[in-house]
Design goal:
Order of helices and strands: HHHEHHHHEHHHHHHHHHHH
Largest sheet: 2 strands, antiparallel
Helix content: 55-70%
Radius of gyration: 21 Å
Number of strands: 2
Strand order of the largest sheet: 1-2
């Protein structure tokens, strides 16, 4: 029975990941591409698709929590932790946003591209995994980041607030006996606003791929939460507690890919010990497999390699930033941007915003440097990019807007 329930959950992780990989490949769903389309061309269809996925996941989690179908307390990672370490969300999010731009895609996109024949992702995937491993399995995080981030962070429990979800914070401030119940109303309010903004675009409504991707990925995220945090997830967790050698990383979770990449490094480091396979590893294998099957069936499978040495180093540097930043921010564009935000955790919104800003700034800076060439120093390009994104006042602009 122990073997059966664990195997069932892990296999479902593969299946759900495969669906995500196939859809992402078939519809060109890409979070970095979404920001790029918006910044460079003013096209927000893929950005709206991303936020449609977020919206559906938010609604799904809120309804399932209210009806008692799931219990995501003790989630992996702990999105709703009362300890609100805001510096890690900002710094990690910015690092991940910069990194995914340099590496030409987020961690989900790395897996999708690998399945489609992109051999460059072997090095980027390995680099993300190694850096994530260093962050989670050594003292690097504690020395370099936690040592100064923890003292300036805030614990909501010191003011009588149980966790960092938006509903719980609002409910506690308003004096509700069950503050967490406000999460449903917060979810519905956000959903109304998001859906209005998303569907007011005729171009998006007419874009079948963007619409389909947002719908399916949002639903898949909610289903994955249900598998790991519903009745099956509870049985999985209870069974693991009585096992002599319980499987690692058991608990409520959904799609996230940075930490599972470090778990993959552990898996290989320990001699392919199948007892170390986690749900996250299964979903990432599923994404890879689903993308491969789609690429083969659609005859779009193509081998790709680095165009030059500079292209190689650009991707490796970007991957390193994703590995470090993804662990620091507690997730990637799906791990925090969809899965985390679906829990209404305040840190997830902060991480998502920081990732988008990091990506947008990198795209802007590179564009200024390309247009102005030697005339544009990095600082001039950065300041002008921040003005473009309305992060700084116009008087600080150093280069004419392009």
């Amino acid at each position: 029975m122990e073997f059966e329930i664990t195997t069932q959950v892990l296999l479902l992780g593969v299946v759900l990941g495969a669906a995500l990989g196939a859809v992402s490949n078939g519809t060109s769903f890409c979070t970095m591409g979404a920001v790029s389309d918006w910044v460079n061309m003013g096209d927000m269809r893929r950005l709206r698709s991303w936020f449609l996925a977020i919206t559906l996941a938010i609604i799904g989690i809120a309804i399932m929590e209210l009806t008692g179908m799931i219990d995501i307390s003790g989630g992996r990672p702990p999105y709703r932790n009362s300890m609100f370490m805001w510096p890690r969300f900002i710094v990690g999010g910015l690092m991940f946003g910069v990194g995914m731009t340099l590496a030409s895609g987020c961690t989900n996109k790395l897996l999708v591209r690998a399945g489609g024949g992109n051999l460059k992702t072997i090095f980027t995937f390995a680099t993300v995994g190694i850096c994530a491993y260093i962050m989670t399995r050594t003292d690097f995080y504690g020395i370099v980041f936690h040592s100064w981030m923890a003292p300036i962070s805030f614990d909501f429990q010191t003011v009588g607030i149980a966790d960092s979800s938006i509903g719980t914070i609002i409910g506690s401030l308003l004096g509700f006996k069950n503050p967490a119940s406000i999460n449903l109303y917060a979810a519905l309010a956000l959903a109304v606003v998001f859906l209005f903004i998303i569907f007011k675009s005729k171009d998006f409504v007419e874009s079948k791929d963007a619409l389909f991707a947002g719908l399916v990925i949002g639903i898949l995220t909610a289903i994955t939460w249900y598998i790991t945090a519903g009745s099956m997830g509870i049985e999985w967790k209870e069974t693991a507690e009585f096992m002599e050698f319980p499987p690692p990383a058991v608990g409520p979770q959904s799609f996230t890919f940075v930490n599972p990449m470090s778990e993959t490094i552990v898996f290989y480091k320990e001699g392919l010990n199948f007892n170390l396979i986690t749900f996250g590893m299964c979903t990432q294998f599923g994404v890879l497999s689903g993308s491969f099957l789609y690429a083969i069936s659609s005859r779009s499978f193509r081998f790709e390699w680095f165009a030059s040495k500079s292209d190689f180093f650009r991707h490796v540097i970007g991957a390193a930033l994703m590995g470090i930043g993804g662990i620091l921010a507690m997730g990637c564009t799906l791990g925090q941007g969809v899965t985390g935000v679906s829990t209404l955790a305040l840190g997830s919104f902060l991480a998502l915003g920081s990732i988008i800003i990091g990506c947008a700034l990198t795209l802007k800076v590179e564009y200024y440097e390309m247009i102005y060439e030697e005339e544009a120093s990095f600082m001039k390009a950065l300041l002008s990019s921040m003005v473009d994104l309305r992060l700084l006042p116009e008087r600080l602009r150093k280069l004419e807007a392009v």
